[in-house]
Recover the amino acids of this structure.
């Protein structure tokens, strides 16, 4: 989406989120922080290689480099499934506000939320993640497959080299 076309703004947004605080204070320890596409402990997971840590001051500086002192207005969709989800969305809205990203929250029914993700009609999306099995290829093959843009690949990621590597891995030849 145009609002986040600059990698520096995406990085600033990621640095503005204190994921540990979300887990501790909102989720009351009933979640874990995902650092990278694979959960810690899964084959291939490399949480030490995740380069982004919570740093609100650095996030503010980086965002203002991109925004030139102006604010940007975006919307974030999220499923209206619980008061806890509302709280996470409101926390993110407050954090992004701190760095000049003004977020309008859109609390949606689950069917409307899925429809918007499938159509790519959002600037930001709040989404949880549960690994259904211990196969890293099942996760990577969804998140990074262009033909699965939508709910399985909400970032709408597309990279031919990555897809070729995943197909090779799925065929057991590396």
């Amino acid at each position: 989406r145009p609002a986040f076309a600059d990698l520096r703004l995406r990085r600033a947004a990621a640095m503005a989120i204190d994921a540990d605080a979300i887990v501790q204070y909102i989720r009351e320890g009933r979640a874990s922080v995902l650092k990278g596409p694979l959960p810690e402990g899964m084959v291939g997971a490399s949480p030490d290689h995740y380069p982004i840590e919570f740093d609100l001051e650095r996030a503010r500086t980086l965002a203002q480099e991109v925004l030139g002192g102006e604010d940007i207005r975006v919307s974030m969709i999220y499923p209206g499934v619980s008061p806890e989800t509302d709280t996470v969305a409101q926390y993110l809205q407050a954090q992004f506000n701190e760095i000049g990203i003004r977020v309008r929250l859109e609390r949606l029914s689950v069917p409307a939320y899925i429809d918007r993700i499938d159509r790519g009609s959002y600037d930001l999306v709040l989404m949880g993640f549960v690994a259904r099995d211990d196969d890293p290829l099942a996760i990577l093959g969804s998140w990074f497959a262009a033909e699965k843009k939508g709910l399985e690949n909400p970032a709408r990621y597309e990279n031919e080299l990555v897809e070729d590597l995943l197909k090779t891995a799925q065929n057991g030849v590396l």
Notes: The mean pLDDT is 89. Strands lie at 72-79, 101-108, 124-125. The longest strand covers residues 72-79. The longest helix spans residues 83-98.
